Amino acid sequence: MKLVFLGPPGVGKGTIADMLKEKVNLMKLSTGDLFRENIKQNTGLGKKANEYIKEGKLVPDDVTIDIVKDRIQRKDNYLLDGFPRTVPQAEALETFAKIDYVVNFKANDKEIIKRLSGRRTCPSCKSNFNIQTLPPKSEGKCDNCNSKLIQREDDKPEAIKKRLIVYKQQTEPLIEYYKKKKILVEVNAEQIPEKVFQDTLKALKL
């Protein structure tokens, strides 16, 4: 089975992807992981991607597409998280892969902002917490190393709003694109993860 997960930042795609790969033998592929893998292995594509990442720029479509293409041509069962992000990327994906289902995880902006703005990170051991859903035992302190937790700049409400605007401009057109292909299924992601996971299994007929 070949899947694509769509949804705004903070909707919980990664959590459901991890749960799904445990249940069915799927390899989860995120563009971030693929970039890191190629950079670590010092591949030609990794060097290209790293040039943009170091400057804080988006990796261009042609490099991203080549990295994904190189990886998935060796696999029969996989789940793409974070790719495609745009219609041109989706059109390119069609030239080398036949996707079975695209799952669109839906949540309103207010819920997304609430979730993401609650995230806290430990600068020392990189542990993650959420003041709403996974609070630390001692307020503001890491459970594992007792360091003071921080809120990342991109998890502050104003930054989240900007990320959602970019998502709506670049990625939402994919929803209509895949609806026309008749392979889009939609899941309400405003529920607890276990319920979202069960609804995902039902949508995928698993």
Secondary-structure element pattern, one letter each: EHEHHHEHEHEEHHEH
What is the level 1 CATH name?
Alpha Beta
Main sheet makeup = 5 strands, parallel
Number of helices: 9
- The class by helix and strand makeup works out as alpha/beta
Radius of gyration from CA coordinates: 18 Å
In the CATH scheme, what's the topology name? Answer: Rossmann fold
Percent helix range: 40-55%
How many structurally independent domains? Answer: 1
How many beta-strand elements? 7
The CATH architecture can be given as: 3-Layer(aba) Sandwich
Give the spatial strand order of the biggest sheet.
Answer: 2-3-1-4-7
**Can you identify the CATH superfamily?**
P-loop containing nucleotide triphosphate hydrolases
List keywords for this structure.
206 residues, alpha/beta, Rossmann fold, two-stranded antiparallel sheet, globular
Task: Describe what you observe in this structure.
- This protein has a five-stranded parallel sheet with strand order 2-3-1-4-7, sandwiched between helices.
- It contains nine helices and seven strands, in the order βαβαααβαβαββααβα.
- The protein has 206 residues and is α/β, with parallel strands linked by helices.
- The radius of gyration is 18 Å and the shape is globular.
- The termini are close together.
- The protein has a single domain (2-26, 77-203), classed as P-loop containing nucleotide triphosphate hydrolases (Rossmann fold), CATH 3.40.50.300.
- It has helices at 13-23, 31-40, 44-54, 61-72, 87-94, 109-117, 157-170, 173-180, 193-203; strands at residues 2-6, 27-30, 78-81, 101-106, 119-121, 128-130, 184-188.
